[in-house]
TrEMBL record, chain A:
Residues 408-439 are annotated as: Disordered. One of its GO terms (molecular function) is ATP binding. The keyword Transferase applies. Coiled coil: none annotated. Heterodimer of GatD and GatE. Keywords: ATP-binding, Ligase, Nucleotide-binding, Protein biosynthesis, Transferase. GO terms for cellular component: cytoplasm. InterPro entries: Asn/Gln-tRNA_amidoTrfase_suB/E, Asn/Gln-tRNA_Trfase_suB/E_cat, Asn/Gln_amidotransferase, Asn/Gln_tRNA_amidoTrase-B-like, GAD-like_sf, GAD_dom, GatB_C_1, GatB_Yqey_C_2. Transmembrane segments: none annotated. This is Glutamyl-tRNA(Gln) amidotransferase subunit E. It comes from Conexivisphaera calida. The keyword ATP-binding applies.
UniProtKB/TrEMBL annotation, chain B:
The lineage of its organism: Archaea, Nitrososphaerota, Conexivisphaeria, Conexivisphaerales, Conexivisphaeraceae. Heterodimer of GatD and GatE. Gene3D superfamilies: 2.30.30.520, 3.40.50.40, L-asparaginase, N-terminal domain. Its EC number is 6.3.5.-. Residues 97-286 form the L-asparaginase N-terminal domain. PANTHER family: 60 KDA LYSOPHOSPHOLIPASE, L-ASPARAGINASE. Allows the formation of correctly charged Gln-tRNA(Gln) through the transamidation of misacylated Glu-tRNA(Gln) in organisms which lack glutaminyl-tRNA synthetase. The reaction takes place in the presence of glutamine and ATP through an activated gamma-phospho-Glu-tRNA(Gln). The GatDE system is specific for glutamate and does not act on aspartate. This is Glutamyl-tRNA(Gln) amidotransferase subunit D. InterPro entries: AsnA_fam (IPR006033), Asp/glu_Ase-like_sf (IPR036152), Asparaginase/glutaminase-like (IPR006034), Asparaginase/glutaminase_AS2 (IPR027475), Asparaginase_C (IPR040919), GatD (IPR011878), GatD_N (IPR040918), GatD_N_sf (IPR037222). It comes from Conexivisphaera calida. PROSITE patterns: ASN_GLN_ASE_2, ASN_GLN_ASE_3. GO terms for molecular function: asparaginase activity; ATP binding; glutaminyl-tRNA synthase (glutamine-hydrolyzing) activity; transferase activity. Keywords: ATP-binding, Ligase, Nucleotide-binding, Protein biosynthesis, Transferase. It catalyses: L-glutamyl-tRNA(Gln) + L-glutamine + ATP + H2O = L-glutaminyl-tRNA(Gln) + L-glutamate + ADP + phosphate + H(+).
Length: 640, 443
């Protein structure tokens, strides 16, 4: 068998790669979707605990994704505070009427994309039992169908526009208890799903997402900031299931995720072809789960022996025809075994051991042969071992078996999560349509012709017009205006200008400065809006010169300083007041008396250079220039 | 015969009828302004308007399309036949605990007739849906009736009491009754009186969030109820519901000391003027008693007295109430009047005359308090003394709803005016407490 070697980008065209983008964006419309709670972030200290059970859809089916989550037997703890949560978030009170402004925002987006708006909106429950919704479902409603998005010279179809409630904020887990914050639950989200786009490069997907992002921002009704936007990517190649990669937050990551996923799907297709050549069929791909604790208890040290000594059981399952295919890694991170480990993680197990990585972990060749014999493994067969509590290990191997069976028929449809380096990690099987169920607590909402007409008359200006207006209003270049308007920190720009910061300075800080710091590898997301606000206020009051902004932010982003003020202090660029500046200029003028008398007005240049070298970053250059000019004129007048 | 266009009326029905389509068919709705929407034709909620057609799209979403916008309807495929009922047979085994279904949210899911939640689940469905329920006890289930609790009547209470009586003579060691929560405390009181010498725990249980949602409290409440009914070393009628907002502890309330005090929260039920009877810890599966409770007894000691007389009335006093209301009730033939007075047990002087008249006509008049917490005490103020002189009987800390049910039951047992005057204020089933503890928290 041959894995095409890494190197350049995959040949997207010949693989038949398609990417469907679903963009979710929070709306800033005063309150949540089904209650009046604040949408501001709040770290609540109170909590309650719940369990969730899968429920049947109206057609009587239980969704596979829901079943998978339920099998994990998790308990959920919800943290809440009083301003961001009420009984609606706690699922202790029926939803209130839908937020009318949120509905209008979604309809506005539909009008901008030329979509067909439904006449009556039905609120649905999308079953999600990973605990991210206290109810066990996400309320969502279809607003419009069809339409198209232009990006550059290209265009892509729109599938649906929906309005839905955001999920609770994931706060991590502690054993079998998953923690969530209720502050984010119920924030209105508009979701636009684009049709699968045949791509010739990963950049196509990025461009489409960027264009959609600008269109949404042009409504002026979307929230901005870290965590207000995320993209789900539905990626496939010819002959594969559709893989949904959930929650890609930044545009640059899209390209990496698409490339990784297309490579991974390509490899799984080769794996399926090889399994078929070896005569493996889905129904015969795995054997019974067998307890091999007795055999492996004789391991010579290593993790296996340690686990068994600690009371763990070792269960094993035969993977027919998989020998060599579990451990192969044709591209970095693309390996069947890696996904099996992720399944084990989902059940709270550290991982699994498969035969391609043995002998290892204290298991020698002899023991491997004994396990092979116990499983009646043939020469082309592999096996997978799970170590842990017998019940947990059994559940893990059942899930692993399902996966091994599925792979025989080609790359399976599933839900994956992006990793920060642009790879993806197995999450759960892909949910089916069985997870949609009508929200019985609410009546259908009619969308009247009058409402549509009113919104059509009040459509926002197209993006380009907004950019040129912004450019002329603030004296910015078209490029800078475009970047500012597109920025997640646009609101901060407006605040800064209100504080008295020069628009071009504020614009440069929130766009170019932050981007270049990010390129240096700094975590600019760790710089909070509040820190930037302090920086702008310091610039506006002259406490920090605009030239020092980059230095100050670098210190904060790198963690060298806890905040803007201490960064300024540490860098020695804390405020230089007028009196101190005047004293310093006088001192320089005194020292250069001879040059001043020789050159007269023309001494200004060199003097400016000398003063600036002493105050750079502490006083604005224009201010230095003004004061220096005055004082020089004074001296020349006196002497002349 | 089922309506093939369920819920559709007027123009929407005409359009669909002309096109010859039925609910469940795959249809394509061509739009006058271009484009088309296709999906499965859904039934229409009965209270929805007649100008929209509802379809389920392939992505699972439902949406309504205006009749005025539809230029034509095409059939893409016909409805699948309903699965037959054969698959739903349940194996019947002789059990320790019987679950008797009466309806309510605990047994409810969406109804396309109204689009709202109505009871459809049967106890068998609950049994198969609650993980681990079968491991707690050997269970049997029976659907007695299936109604929302606001539709419960004293006749239903009687039917439940009789069924419980039979279950006990059949040898069950515990009884669980699934019930709508709105009037569950009335039924609990009714059963408390109707089942004299009750030898086993009878546990009423409901759900505040319908069992068609993953976050439903139905499953945990039911588990708690079955644990209390099978493992509780006590007898009597109880209500099992969430203790707080977490799914960990189920509170076991005494049937005569419990009230629904919230419209929607899962811990809506609270023990009033009484400590919780017990708590079921769902993680350890332990039933922990919090107060002295009657032990289990001999099944032969049970006497079922299921008759209730509806001629009792519960009247909430408000400032300025007209005494004519009371005259009207007396003239309509009511035999017992339970007043929900203010504070320690008062009503305004303007109704005293009517009350005196009622007592003279042989109507029992008892006083409870709308404060809910605490006992009436009618010797403190002149008004109370006047009322007692007029023949009003103070009912201690008995809850108004319990007093009403007790009056219905005593009348049903043939009690005359004198017996009412002596039995209503005496404690028969724990409905009146002598002491209220300083630390009685409201839970």
């Amino acid at each position: 068998m041959s894995a095409s070697e890494g190197g350049g980008a995959p040949d997207y065209r010949s693989l038949g790669a398609k990417v469907g983008i679903e963009l979710h964006r929070q709306l800033d419309v005063g309150g949540k979707l089904f209650c009046g709670c604040s949408t501001a972030r709040e770290d609540g200290s109170k909590s309650f605990r719940r369990v969730l059970l899968p429920s049947e859809s109206e057609l009587g089916d239980v969704d596979p994704a829901a079943r998978f989550e339920a099998a994990r037997g998790m308990e959920f703890e919800y943290m809440y505070g009083d301003s961001s949560s009420c009984l609606v978030e706690a699922d202790e009170e029926p939803p209130h009427d839908v937020n009318q402004r949120a509905l209008e925002a979604a309809i506005t987006v539909a009008l901008l994309l030329g979509s067909t708006i439904v006449d009556e909106v039905h609120v649905m429950r999308k079953i999600v039992i990973d605990g991210s919704n206290t109810s066990g479902f996400q309320r969502t409603m279809l607003i419009a169908l069809g339409g198209s998005l232009k990006f550059g010279e290209k265009s892509v179809g729109v599938l649906t526009i929906t309005l839905e409630e955001d999920a609770a904020r994931n706060l991590g887990s502690d054993g079998r208890v998953k923690k969530y914050g209720l502050d984010r639950l119920g924030i209105p989200l508009v979701e636009v799903s684009l049709a699968p786009l045949e791509i010739s490069s990963a950049q196509d997907a990025v461009d489409a997402a960027a264009a959609l992002g600008r269109l949404l921002k042009s409504t002026g009704m979307v929230a901005r900031g870290i965590g207000t936007v995320r993209q789900d990517l539905n990626i496939s190649i010819a002959g594969s299931g559709i893989v949904e990669v959930k929650g890609v937050q930044e545009l640059p990551l899209i390209a990496k995720v698409v490339e990784f996923e297309v490579r991974r799907l390509g490899w799984l297709k080769e794996v399926a072809a090889e399994l078929s050549r070896r005569g493996v069929r889905p129904e015969s791909a795995v054997g019974e789960i067998v307890d091999v604790t007795g055999i492996l208890s004789r391991a010579k040290g290593g993790v296996v022996r340690k686990s068994i000594a600690g009371g763990a059981r070792a269960l094993a399952v035969l993977a027919r025809g998989y020998r060599g295919l579990l451990g192969s890694e044709p591209y970095e991170g693309v390996r069947v075994g890696r996904d099996l480990a992720a399944i084990a993680n989902a059940f709270g197990l550290g991982g699994v051991i498969h035969s391609d990585e043995l002998p290892n972990y204290g298991v020698d060749e002899g023991l491997v042969e004994e396990v092979r014999a116990a499983l009646a493994a043939g020469s082309e067969d592999a096996f997978v071992i799970a170590l842990g509590d017998a019940e947990v290990a059994r559940r893990v191997l059942e899930a692993v078996s399902g996966r091994l069976r599925d792979l025989v028929s080609g790359p399976p449809a599933e839900t994956r999560a992006p990793t920060p380096d642009g790879r993806t990690k197995y999450m759960r099987p892909r949910p089916g349509s069985a997870r949609m169920y009508p929200e019985t607590d609410l009546l259908p909402i009619p969308i009247t012709g009058a409402m549509r007409a009113r919104l059509r008359e009040n459509l926002p200006l197209p993006w380009d017009r907004q950019v040129s207006e912004l450019a002329s209003k603030y004296g910015l270049s078209a490029k800078l205006a475009d970047e500012v308007l597109d920025s997640e920190r646009y609101d901060l720009f407006r605040e800064a200008v209100k504080m008295g910061v020069k628009p071009s300075v504020a614009a440069t800080v929130i766009t170019e400065t932050l981007v270049s710091l990010r390129r240096e590898g700094l975590d600019v997301d760790s710089v909070s809006d509040d820190q930037l606000r302090r920086l702008f206020s310091a610039i506006a009051s002259g406490r920090i010169a605009k030239e020092a902004a980059s230095e100050v932010l670098r210190a904060v982003a790198s963690g060298r300083a806890p905040d803007v003020d201490s960064a300024a202090e540490a860098l020695g660029i804390s405020a230089l007041d007028d009196a101190a500046l005047a004293a310093l200029i006088d001192e320089v003028l005194d020292r250069n008396e001879r040059m001043i008398s020789e050159r007269g007005d023309r001494a200004l240049g060199p003097l400016m250079g000398e003063v600036m070298s002493k105050v750079r970053g502490r006083v604005d250059g224009a201010k230095v220039n003004e004061m220096l000019r005055l004082k020089l004129k004074e001296r020349l007048g006196r002497s002349g | 015969m089922e309506d093939e266009l369920q819920g559709y009326r007027g123009p929407a029905r005409d359009l669909l009828q002309r096109a010859g389509v039925h609910v469940g068919d795959e249809v394509e709705l061509a739009l006058a302004d271009g484009g088309a929407i296709s999906g499965t034709l859904m039934p229409r909620y009965e209270h929805a308007d007649d100008e929209h057609v509802a379809v389920k799209l392939r992505n699972g979403y439902n949406a309504g399309v205006a009749v005025s916008r539809i230029s034509s309807v095409h059939v893409l495929g016909r409805a699948r036949p309903e699965p037959t009922a054969a698959a739903q047979q349940v194996r019947r085994v002789k059990g320790d605990v019987i679950i008797i279904g009466t309806g309510g949210t605990i047994a409810s899911r969406i109804d396309y007739r109204t689009g709202a939640v109505t009871p459809i689940f049967r106890p068998e469905d609950l049994y198969s849906r609650v993980p681990g329920l079968g491991e707690i006890a050997n269970l049997e289930t029976e659907l007695l009736f299936n109604i929302l609790s606001e539709n419960m009547t004293p006749e239903h209470w009687a039917a439940i009491a009789e069924r419980v009586g039979r279950a006990i003579s059949e040898g069950y060691r515990g009884v669980v009754i699934t019930h709508g929560t709105d009037t569950m405390h009335y039924t609990a009181a009714a059963l408390s009186f109707a089942l004299e010498g009750l030898p086993v725990p009878v546990v009423l249980v409901g759900a505040q969030r319908s069992s068609d949602r993953p976050s439903s409290d139905a499953s945990s409440n039911l588990k708690g109820a079955v644990l209390a009914a099978s493992r509780g070393d006590f007898s009597g009628v109880y209500v099992a519901m969430h203790r707080n907002l977490s799914d960990r502890e189920i509170a076991i309330h005494r049937g005569v000391k419990v009230r629904k005090n919230h419209t929607s929260r899962r811990d809506a039920f609270e023990s009033v003027n009484s400590r919780l009877a017990a708590v079921v810890d769902l993680s350890s599966m332990e039933v922990r008693k919090l107060t002295d409770l009657p032990p289990r007894g001999d099944p032969r000691s049970l006497k079922v007295k299921p008759r209730f007389d509806r001629r009792a009335f519960l009247l909430k006093y408000f400032p300025g109430m007209d005494g004519g209301v009371i005259d009207g009730l007396v003239d309509a033939g009511y035999r017992a009047l339970i007043l929900e007075g203010t504070g320690l047990g008062h009503v305004g002087a303007q109704v005293h005359g009517s009350i005196r008249r009622a007592v003279e006509k042989g109507v029992f008049v008892g006083m409870t308090s709308q404060c809910i917490w605490g006992s009436v005490r009618m010797t403190v103020y002149d008004t109370g003394r006047d009322l007692m002189r007029a023949g009003v009987v103070p009912l201690g800390d008995m809850l108004p709803e319990v007093a009403l049910v007790k009056a219905m039951w005593l009348l049903g047992q043939g009690a005359g005016a004198e017996e009412m005057r002596s039995l209503m204020p005496s404690n028969m089933r724990g409905e009146i407490s002598e002491r209220r503890y300083i630390e009685d928290v409201r839970e």
